[in-house]
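LOG
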Amino acid sequence: MAITRTFSILKPDATRRNLTGAINAMIDPPACASSPKSACT
């Protein structure tokens, strides 16, 4: 199983406003179901 990595650079104002978690959630969607027939959208 391959590991996927995402590199993101956030601006300092996003860090000051505590938006890093919200931005990372938009970039990296939650994992799909483990069912082989399910598809990620």
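LOG (cont.) second protein
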Amino acid sequence: MSMDMKNSKEEFTARIMQLPVLDTHTHLVGDRLCASDFWEIAHYFWLFRELQAGGYPADAMELPENQRISAFLEAYHGTKNTLMNGVLTQILKICTA
């Protein structure tokens, strides 16, 4: 790869990485357009599946909240290389900016 092409690719990647990333695959329900709490976001189907692959229990909603938080954080950190983890991270960055 030529140096010019490598620089162009790096510039392009740098510009793309500055864009906010949001999960646009949703099934909106008219009277429930917004999540009512964090867990509705954290348990979004595809994110939940990736978290389960990282050790998050399938019955997490049945755990006492302090155990659920610990289990979530462990699985969240264990799935940092997944797409939905990146989406959640971006959503949290945007919400806390």
